[in-house]
């Protein structure tokens, strides 16, 4: 059985929480940046958090926001992971590290275009790194570029129930991270979530 972890991201409603509680991914992601369509305001996130199964770790996704704002949300919402999905640099990560409790992990997302992006991801001081093709746009990238990645990583970008097994088999990510690929008409689709999770968990890797 696969040990690959699974993150379902972009949850917005009580129905989405019901779906993840049923199929139990390892992580649930919430978009905390108001510029994006899957944004969840703090009061909604608080309500959804109360409904989330306690065994599913809670990830807040931020894009180039002030570190003080992230720290406040991370504490108030008791996030397990702060995901930085913009152009945040090393200095930014160390400033944020000073402001949040050490048990909250910092995950830095890198959009992979060139070898330089891989080098930056490998050298990042973030607790975790995520390799992606976009920002929740369902856009994949050239997986061959990361075949020799030298640290564990979350893999995102255009994953779906049809391609996730190939991604796990080829790249051996620590975790797969999916948003658009488990949606239909912009909403989480229970059957797609079920298929994705069961296909990853049934893999023998
Ligand atoms: O999902 C979003 O709306 C989003 C907005 C801003 C930054 C990141 C966002 N999502 C992240 O994108 C990947 C999943 O992308 P995909 O839709 O499956 O291709 C994942 O890391 C989300 O956290």
TrEMBL record:
GO terms for molecular function: phosphoribosylanthranilate isomerase activity. This is N-(5'-phosphoribosyl)anthranilate isomerase. Pathway: Amino-acid biosynthesis; L-tryptophan biosynthesis; L-tryptophan from chorismate: step 3/5. It comes from the Bacteria. It is an enzyme of class 5 (isomerase). Belongs to the TrpF family. The gene is trpF. GO terms for biological process: L-tryptophan biosynthetic process. Coiled coil: none annotated. InterPro entries: Aldolase_TIM, PRAI_dom, RibuloseP-bd_barrel, TrpF_fam. It comes from Porcincola intestinalis. Keywords: Amino-acid biosynthesis, Aromatic amino acid biosynthesis, Isomerase, Tryptophan biosynthesis. Residues 6-197 form the N-(5'phosphoribosyl) anthranilate isomerase (PRAI) domain. Pfam families: PRAI. It catalyses: N-(5-phospho-beta-D-ribosyl)anthranilate = 1-(2-carboxyphenylamino)-1-deoxy-D-ribulose 5-phosphate. Its EC number is 5.3.1.24.
């Amino acid at each position: 059985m696969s040990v690959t972890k699974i993150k379902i991201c972009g949850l917005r409603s009580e129905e989405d929480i019901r779906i993840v509680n049923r199929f139990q991914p390892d992580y649930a992601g919430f978009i905390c940046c108001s510029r994006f369509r899957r944004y969840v305001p703090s009061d909604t996130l608080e309500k959804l958090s109360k409904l989330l199964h306690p065994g599913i770790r809670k990830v807040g996704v931020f894009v180039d926001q002030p570190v003080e704002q992230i720290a406040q949300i991370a504490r108030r919402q008791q996030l397990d992971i702060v995901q930085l999905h913009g152009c945040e640099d090393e200095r930014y990560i160390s400033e944020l590290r000073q402001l949040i409790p050490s048990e909250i992990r910092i995950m830095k997302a890198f959009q992979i275009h060139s070898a330089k992006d891989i080098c930056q991801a490998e050298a990042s001081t973030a607790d975790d790194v995520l390799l992606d093709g976009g920002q929740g746009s369902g856009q994949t990238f050239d997986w061959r570029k990361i075949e020799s990645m030298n640290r564990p990583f979350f893999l995102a970008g255009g994953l779906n129930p049809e391609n996730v097994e190939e991604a796990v088999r080829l790249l051996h990510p620590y975790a797969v991270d999916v948003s658009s690929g488990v949606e239909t008409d912009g909403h989480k689709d229970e059957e797609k979530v079920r298929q994705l999770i069961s296909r990853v968990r049934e893999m023998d890797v």
